[in-house]
Amino acid sequence: MTSNPKPIDMSAYWLPYTPNRYFHQHPKVMKSAKGAYYFDDHGRKLFDGLSGLWCSPLGHADPRIGAAIAKQYDTMDYCPAFQMASEATFTLASRIVKLAPAGLDKVFFTNSGSEAVDTALKIAIGYHRVQGNASRIRMIGRERAYHGVGIGGISVGGIVANRKMFASMMMPGVDHLPHTLNLSQMAFSKGQPTWGAHLADELERIVALHDANTIAAVILEPVQGSTGVLVPPLGYLQKIREICTKHGILLIFDEVITGFGRLSANFGADRFGVTPDMIVFAKAITNGVIPMGGVLVRGDIYDSIMGGGGQEQLIEFFHGYTYSGHPIPVAAAHAVLDIFESDDLVNRAKALEPILENALHALKGKSGLLDIRNIGLSGAVELEPVPGKPGLRAMKVLEACIERGVLVRISNDTIAVGPPFISTPAEVENLISALGDAVDDAMKSN
Ligand SMILES: Cc1ncc(COP(=O)(O)O)c(C=O)c1O
């Protein structure tokens, strides 16, 4: 049963990454969440088709996470992050290292993906500097990349709208690889496209242009999530790795979305068999319950920075946050990793992957669909835009999805899905069939 919600005063809250004026006309107010569902102020039950913002793979309100947070609050609600730490922070770092590819032996904690990206860029610069390579200051990002909203992140990011308003604030010395999406070559690929590995050679061109000795790092999302699940072509990431190694350039994977099981493996690095020098993570590490991010770092990068630190009483790396390794998110993260183990969640995601793939690709042939993409428990459909009105078609699909009881994520005219790992096969199929019907609705309405 649905009902008309009580009006609320929306005048003060400036919503992030939201068309605020449209929102005020079409508010979406969530009241509660349990398992794989949200409940909104109309009394509707909505399947969480994007796991929050890719951050809640275990679903919502798992009492085991709540209990861990409550217990930690009673034991120690805060511990200064500088010059001291709680024991659980050390053990969490060790657990994350155990899950990560071999060689990534250190963890620097932050509070968000954006902070983790900027932290990784600073570690790259610091490392080269202590190695005597202070000229290595350039960063290479990629078109259509999303690396959060810090100054470093928007500089290496490749989304025009995130960059043009802030051009004066950008980091200098940043170049971009081309993105890998080419609909004429790869539309409707299942999993990794077979075309496009050669696009990695663009990195050689950029290196030749600037000289390797000026380049600190390449940062990439293994799968570009925010701009619509752009899956790397077969062999592309391997080539990027080879070129970085050849030229002494650090490779950073931004796994804020792809980390912790989303690609049916612990990390995208495992899924693609490519080990970067650093991995940026956030989101799923606490199931989105409480903010936390971090950077996994190659052990010898840490050792170099320690070695360059001078006398032992002096700080080696001038960076950190008041809430780095905060005991409460640390407790949440331990509980999340316990649940990953006890409930075998990466394997549950893996078992759902073919169900999502089949359901999504069954939409092929629908009017208005330009592409369908998928990998792991993530997927996207790209819609033909309404001429002259970018994003409008997708907005209509979102509204129609909500009418049909499912939540999806829109970005321009792409719709992304990433269901919780606790979903049943029927829920995944129902999500995609509702999406297909919503696309039909949106195509009819103009
Ligand atoms: C790949 C990637 N990097 C960084 C971020 C930024 O994370 P946060 O919003 O926690 O700052 C995101 C957020 O979606 C992301 O997808």
Distance between the termini: 29 Å
Mean pLDDT: 97
Q: Do you know the CATH architecture of the largest domain?
A: 3-Layer(aba) Sandwich
Low-confidence stretches: none
Spatial strand order of the main sheet:
4-10-9-8-7-5-6
Largest sheet: 7 strands, mixed
Global outline? globular
User: CATH topology of the largest domain, anyone?
Assistant: Aspartate Aminotransferase, domain 2
Name the beta content range.
Answer: 15-25%
CATH class of the largest domain: Alpha Beta
- Tally of domains: 2
CATH H level, superfamily name of the largest domain: Type I PLP-dependent aspartate aminotransferase-like (Major domain)
Question: Could you walk me through the main structural features you see in this protein, from its secondary elements to its overall organization?
Answer:
The radius of gyration is 22 Å and the shape is globular. The two termini are 29 Å apart. Helix 4 crosses helix 13 and helix 5 crosses helix 12. With 446 residues, the protein is α/β, with parallel strands linked by helices. The longest helix is centred in the C-terminal third of the chain and has 20 residues. Strand 8, helix 11 and strand 9 form a beta-alpha-beta unit. The protein folds into two domains: 140 residues, Aspartate Aminotransferase, domain 1 (Alpha-Beta Complex); 277 residues, Type I PLP-dependent aspartate aminotransferase-like (Major domain) (Aspartate Aminotransferase, domain 2). It is built from 16 helices and 15 strands. The chain has a seven-stranded mixed beta sheet, with helices on both faces. A four-stranded mixed beta sheet has the order 1-2-3-13. The chain has a four-stranded antiparallel beta sheet with strand order 11-12-15-14, with helices on one face. The site of pyridoxal-5'-phosphate (PLP) has 15 residues, from helix 5. This is Aspartate aminotransferase family protein. Keywords: Aminotransferase, Pyridoxal phosphate, Transferase. GO terms for molecular function: beta-alanine:pyruvate transaminase activity; pyridoxal phosphate binding. Its EC number is 2.6.1.18. InterPro entries: Aminotrans_3, Aminotrans_3_PPA_site, PyrdxlP-dep_Trfase, PyrdxlP-dep_Trfase_major, PyrdxlP-dep_Trfase_small.
